[in-house]
């Protein structure tokens, strides 16, 4: 049985505690619990073998443990546990609110100004 990880994650003025543990060879599960204010918000489990059976080596289990822990920490930082009214829409800060026509027009204008606009083809294929 491997030891696990404990991390406090502050996101949007809220503190979450993430605890990830290996349950051991007799119960080959990696479990992550997400707490806020002492209350469990969510739990994730990943089985990596059969009880008492062959299991990955300690380095492989350690890698699985760390990946699962880091995935949950990332999810918190990305707002997965934000209340619905505070969740940001997909692509917020990445995707523009301009229409496709506006994006295409700006691209054509910039390419024309830079002299990189491809020649226009007339006619059918």
Task: For the structure shown, list the relevant keywords.
single chain, 125 residues, alpha+beta, elongated
Short description:
By secondary structure, the chain is an alpha+beta fold. Helices cover 28% and strands 26% of the residues.
Give the strand order of the largest sheet, numbering strands 1, 2, ... along the chain: 1-2-3-4
Integer average pLDDT: 85
Rg, alpha carbons: 24 Å
Secondary-structure content class: alpha+beta
What is the helix/strand order? Answer: EEEEHH
What percentage of the residues does DSSP assign to strands (E)?
A: 25-35%
State the share of residues found in helices, binned by percent: 25-40%
* Number of beta strands: 4
Let me know the largest β-sheet: 4 strands, antiparallel
Spatial shape: elongated
Distance N to C terminus = 65 Å
Low-confidence stretches: none
**Helix count, DSSP H or I runs of 4 or more residues:** 2
- The protein's oligomeric status is single chain
How would you portray this structure in words?
With 125 residues, the chain is an alpha+beta fold. It has two helices and four strands. The protein is elongated. Helices cover 28% and strands 26% of the residues. It has a domain at 5-86. The model has no long low-confidence stretch (mean pLDDT 85). It has a four-stranded antiparallel β-sheet, covered by helices on one side.
């Amino acid at each position: 049985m491997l030891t696990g990880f404990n991390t406090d994650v502050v996101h949007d003025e809220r503190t979450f505690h993430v605890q990830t543990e290996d349950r051991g060879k007799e119960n080959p599960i990696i479990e992550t619990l997400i707490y806020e204010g002492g209350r469990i918000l969510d739990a994730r489990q990943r089985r990596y073998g059969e009880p008492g059976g062959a299991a990955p080596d300690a380095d492989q289990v350690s890698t699985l443990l760390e990946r699962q822990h880091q995935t949950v920490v990332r999810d918190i930082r990305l707002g997965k546990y934000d209340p619905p009214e505070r969740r940001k829409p997909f692509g917020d800060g990445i995707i523009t609110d301009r229409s496709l026509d506006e994006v295409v027009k700006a691209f054509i204008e910039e390419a024309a100004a830079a002299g990189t606009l491809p020649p226009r083809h007339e006619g059918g294929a």
